[in-house]
Amino acid sequence: FLTILGNSAVLATAVKRSSLLKSPELLTVNLAVADIGMAISMYPLAIASAWNHAWLGGDASCIYYALMGFLFGVCSMMTLCAMAVIRFLVTNSSKSNSKKITKNTVRILITFIWLYSLLWAILPLVGWGYYGPEPFGISCTIAWSKFHNSSNGFSFILSMFLLCTVLPALTIVACYLGIAWKVHKAYQEIQNINRIPNAAKLEKKLTLVS
Q: In this structure, is residue 210 part of a structural domain?
């Protein structure tokens, strides 16, 4: 309920002020769409199965649940990655360069994110990788057990782990560290010319926020 209400509020606000939205804010809207999609398509079945102490559906519903989880999960991860990259580019670019990140550019990026997520979600259905029950038997996801039992499963899980988890995560960390370093250098320069009192304290606060 909180997931649906919270993300619905984000979407309602975005619709209300759509003409005022800046291009990077479209990624926040996309993240809300992915999160609310996951909540609606997955949570009811997962909660009911947890109360039942066993998966309520059959094989078809298991594949559906795993597919939705992978689709929205990869979409959320890649959206967070894109948000970090754009924030880094804006922070480290001149005002004229930052304006080059238009709404059309972000829309194309969002389209690519959904196609990329859909591709990875469909691959187990066409023969590369597998979907199956999780170890506790109350939900379904990628068949992690195939990592050791099948070369097909091994190659899929390794590729997915690198391209959908490790690489985006490292990109996010690198971008926010870059932003923090940029803020640190900027306020270090300000401190050196004594334009602002208590610059060191301000620098620490802004670096922490970044």
A: no
pLDDT tens digits along 35-46: 999 999 999 888
CB within 8 Å of 121: residues ≥ 6 apart: 67, 70, 71, 74
Number of separate domains in the chain: 1
User: In degrees rounded to 5, what are phi and psi of residue 106?
Assistant: -70, -35
Q: Does residue 82 contact residue 93 with C-beta atoms inside 8 Å?
A: no
The tokens of 167 are what? 């690489």
Cβ burial of 79 (10 Å; 0-12, 13-18, 19+) is buried
Output the domain CATH number for residue 12: 1.20.1070.10
The DSSP symbol for 165 reads I
Residue type, 134: E
Give this prediction's pTM.
0.83
